[in-house]
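PROTEIN DESIGN WORKSHEET
SECTION A - STRUCTURE
LENGTH: 364
TOKENS:
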């Protein structure tokens, strides 16, 4: 994979730079510019080398959203000249982007002299602007792309031990390969978020009206990895919370995992569970945290914030990933308190399982 560091004699040439500026927007303003900021070193580098830049990004799923708020915010924070940079339209506006249409692929390629992928967070998608353009142009990895690969690989290749993996979020079926892999690679795997609902249900606990995936593979995982609900007892790799926060008649209540009522919804992991996790955090040399421990929209952000604070004070090498979790890190202004914060959501998960992505393979 070629780095942009190897680029020479590009003055006056046009770089097609795929970025992921699919950022949250409210009332016409960008709420979190983490991904935009992470692309700036690559953009500045290319401009200093004398290149013209066309930035390609998507916004939203169907391409109907205007890039105007993103463009306005980009030039405000970057302070770069509009004479050096232009934005292509919201690329998902074109059916050929997702469909990998050869005609669209060629037309995009004709806009530039070389291609740079600085969109790790969408490189798990085999779309035209990710895997199609590199077929036609000399292609390179941006600085953030290189940082993502280098840092996330620390959790795959010869990881430091003790290694603690804290996994939250939802959709057990999509995260099953990840859980299976890291039950082998890591020393401890702690499960929170909506994933926990699946584990508790499979163990025979009542989960009320909580979100469950009902995946069959979970029982095999539990059979091969008997879970521990106790603090640092060293009895196994799989650690599950001892208590949770439920919503009952509109009120949030801290309960033991075996006390959930049929009409209640699990919102977050409980206070005891955060304390239970503390000794694991303190003794670890590598910590990988991906996904929230609770439902943010229903007040389930307390445990995630507490755990992020604990992890930020750890002496371990700390890697944070997952879209929702990264947004919370930005909100807490704690980005610099971790060894590495990934820009990816689904891309981070896929890379942690496979060690590569379609967008990375396309650059080789």
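SECTION B - SEQUENCE
RESIDUE ASSIGNMENT:
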């Amino acid at each position: 994979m070629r780095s942009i560091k190897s680029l020479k004699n590009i003055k006056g040439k046009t770089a097609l730079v795929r970025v992921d500026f699919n950022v949250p927007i409210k009332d016409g303003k960008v709420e979190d510019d983490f991904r935009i900021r992470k692309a700036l070193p690559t953009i500045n580098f290319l401009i200093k080398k004398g290149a013209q830049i066309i930035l390609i990004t998507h916004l939203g799923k169907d391409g109907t959203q205007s890039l105007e708020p993103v463009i306005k915010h980009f030039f405000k924070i970057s302070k770069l000249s509009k004479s050096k940079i232009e934005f292509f339209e919201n690329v998902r506006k074109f059916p050929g982007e997702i469909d990998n249409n050869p005609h669209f692929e060629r037309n995009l390629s004709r806009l530039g002299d070389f291609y740079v992928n600085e969109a790790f967070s969408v490189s798990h998608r085999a779309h035209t602007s990710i895997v199609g353009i590199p077929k036609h142009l000399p292609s390179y990895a941006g600085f953030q792309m290189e940082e993502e690969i280098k840092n996330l690989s620390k959790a795959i290749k010869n990881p430091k031990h003790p290694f603690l993996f804290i996994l939250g979020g939802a959709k057990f079926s999509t995260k099953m390969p990840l859980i299976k892999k890291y039950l082998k690679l890591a020393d401890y795997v702690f499960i929170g978020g909506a994933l926990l609902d699946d584990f508790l249900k499979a163990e025979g606990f009542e989960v009320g009206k909580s979100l469950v995936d009902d995946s069959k593979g979970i029982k095999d995982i539990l059979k091969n990895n008997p879970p521990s609900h106790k603090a640092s007892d060293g009895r196994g790799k799989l650690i599950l919370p001892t208590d949770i926060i439920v919503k009952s008649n509109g009120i949030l209540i801290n309960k033991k995992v075996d006390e959930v009522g049929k009409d209640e919804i699990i919102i977050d992991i409980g206070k005891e569970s955060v304390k239970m996790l503390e000794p694991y955090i303190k003794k670890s040399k590598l910590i990988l945290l991906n996904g929230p421990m609770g439902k943010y929209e229903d007040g389930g952000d307390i445990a995630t914030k507490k755990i992020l604070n604990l992890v930020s004070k750890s002496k371990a090498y700390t890697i944070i990933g997952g879209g929702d979790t990264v947004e919370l890190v930005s909100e807490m202004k704690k980005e610099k308190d971790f060894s590495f914060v990934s820009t990816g959501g689904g891309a981070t998960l896929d890379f942690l399982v496979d060690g590569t992505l379609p967008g990375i393979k396309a650059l080789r």
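SECTION C - NOTES
The domain at 161-315 is CATH 3.40.50.1260 (Rossmann fold).
The longest strand covers residues 14-19.
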